[in-house]
Write a structure and sequence with these properties.
It is built from 9 helices and 2 strands; from the N terminus they run H-H-H-H-H-H-H-E-E-H-H. The chain is mainly alpha-helical and 298 residues long. Bound molecules: manganese (II) ion (MN) (2 copies). One manganese (II) ion (MN) binds next to helix 2, helix 3 and helix 6.
Length: 298
């Protein structure tokens, strides 16, 4: 089972310039081959399918626990997309004024035709995410190697998306996820090292570009977020500390398991887009504006 919290893993600013094409680029980090939906579903299926776990419990705990964090990552990327899309069309109730005119020039028209100006499970080119991105071979070494590769590919994708947009919301989200993805890369490297003796940490960083090149990572690293593995469960996955211990291979600072999720930030409540009838038309919204009051009255 999974518990859900109505919080984002970090605070996201409101974009100064809504940008549908920046939102399309960010879609790669959600539903691309190396996106957050892939990391979430890879670790989720690997954890469901983990055989003989009692004998090698710390590896199971690590994969299952990181899977839970990835849910928070798809949520964060989705809200960055939603924030970027908010305000990209003319808000209103009159279809004859062509309020969606701008959408015709947007790279991804599904944001306007198939959703209420919001995130979709697809990549930057509009290809739907699919289950073939999941690798759960059942062989622990192969799966951990794949996870290490997947996190490095996710990191490269984030860096390139960062270079595609100077929007502060996108960059804030990417900065935070570069730091958290760095934790996962080190975690899978450590898991492989403990399992095989191979010094995987010597390969880092992949790509050869330090987080310090991305100013948005700084405040998170100052808080030590690059050396903390959150334990995303009230009582379970307690043996992650048997893998997440010692020092950071690049930075040398002490690794720590923290019980419970980070405090994070509020979930943005975005304005209605009546030109898309999202969630309802302007007339219906007006009619229902005191819905809370009405629901309490029998
Ligand atoms: Mn992630
Ligand atoms: Mn990750």
């Amino acid at each position: 089972m999974i518990l859900r919290l109505d919080r984002l893993m970090c605070e996201l600013p409101t974009p100064s310039n809504p940008d549908a094409n920046a939102a399309s680029a960010v879609q790669e980090l959600l539903g691309g081959k190396y996106g957050e939906m892939s990391t979430l579903m890879n670790y989720t299926f690997q954890s469901f399918n983990f055989r003989g776990r009692e004998k090698i419990r710390p590896y199971y705990d690590l994969i299952a626990n990181i899977a839970a964090e990835e849910y928070g990552h798809i949520e964060l990327v989705s809200y960055a997309i939603n924030l970027l899309l908010t305000g990209t069309t003319k808000r209103g109730n009159d279809p004859s004024a062509a309020p969606l005119e701008n959408a015709a020039d947007a790279k991804n028209s599904y944001h306007f035709l198939a959703s209420g100006q919001s995130a979709l499970p697809m990549d930057s080119m509009g290809n739907w995410w699919n289950g073939s991105y999941v690798t759960a071979t059942g062989n622990l070494k192969m799966d951990l190697l794949f996870n290490f590769h997947l996190e490095c590919g996710a990191r490269a994708g984030k860096m390139r998306a960062y270079e595609m947009t100077s929007d502060k919301t996108a960059r804030e989200m990417i900065g935070f996820l570069l730091v958290r993805g760095g934790v996962h890369i080190v975690a899978y490297a450590k898991a492989l090292e403990k399992l095989t003796g191979a010094e995987v940490g010597k390969l880092l960083p992949i790509p050869d570009l330090d987080n310090s090149k991305f100013p948005e990572t700084r405040k998170h690293e100052e808080q030590g977020i690059h050396r903390i593995l959150y334990r995303f469960s009230p009582e379970d996955y307690t043996r992650v500390g048997e893998i997440w211990n010692g020092t950071h291979p690049e930075r040398g600072d002490k690794l720590e398991v923290r019980d419970g999720p980070p405090k994070g930030g509020p979930v943005p409540d975005l304005e209605a887009e009546p030109q898309l009838c999202a969630p309802l038309s302007a007339d219906e919204m007006e009619m229902l504006k005191d819905v809370g009051k009405k629901m309490k009255v029998k």
